[in-house]
Write a structure and sequence with these properties.
With 174 residues, the protein is of the alpha/beta class. Helix content is 45%, strand content 21%. It contains seven helices and six strands. A six-stranded mixed β-sheet has the order 1-6-5-2-3-4, with helices on both faces. It starts with a strand and ends with a strand.
Length: 174
């Protein structure tokens, strides 16, 4: 299967991902455990094939919705909820991705964070000195056709916010 990827850099300048990977590349792969995660893994694995110096920071961001989860329990359940979000939801996702990428020789560091995805993605990319942020397009093909027919933008608001604010190139895997 061939992955399609759209690469965007700050200021709209294109970036050749494949040639950068030959000199050593560190990806920030933002995963959520859905089919989008598989597309991200396939993309990073295809870039890493035959290269020794590809690293990936595997990031899962759990959104914090205390109002819904804590209704009737007040804040004394906050730590328990965060522990479950990290250990029961996020860690299995990042561990599965790390295992798959490890099989093709990608060195992985797994992270699960709780909070607003945009600042967490940007902070992790900066702290870990990532060369590229890899996200997956969330729109299924039939929705994409409908959105295109309506003349609406094809990129989700979260992805467009990351593209706008990122200091490194952003690859959107379709």
């Amino acid at each position: 299967m061939t992955n399609q990827a759209t690469t965007t850099a700050p200021g709209g300048i294109g970036h050749d991902v494949a040639s950068s990977a030959t000199r050593g590349m560190r990806f920030l792969a933002v995963v959520d455990g859905s089919e989008r995660t598989n597309r991200i893994v396939d993309f990073v694995a295809s870039i890493a094939q035959g290269k020794d110096s590809v690293e990936a920071i595997i990031l899962n961001v759990q959104d914090r919705h205390y109002e819904a989860r804590l209704r009737g329990y007040q804040s004394f359940k906050k730590d328990e909820i965060e522990d479950r979000l990290i250990n029961d939801v996020g860690l299995p996702i990042v561990n599965a991705v790390s295992k798959r990428l490890g099989k093709v020789g990608v060195v992985c560091l797994s992270k699960v964070k709780i909070g607003d995805p945009l600042p967490i993605i940007l902070r992790c990319a900066a702290e870990d000195k990532c060369d590229v942020i890899v996200l997956a397009d969330p729109q299924p093909q039939y929705v994409r056709r409908w959105v295109r027919a309506m003349g609406l933008p094809l990129v989700s608001s979260m992805i467009s916010r990351v593209i706008t604010a990122a200091l490194v190139p952003v690859v959107i895997v379709k």
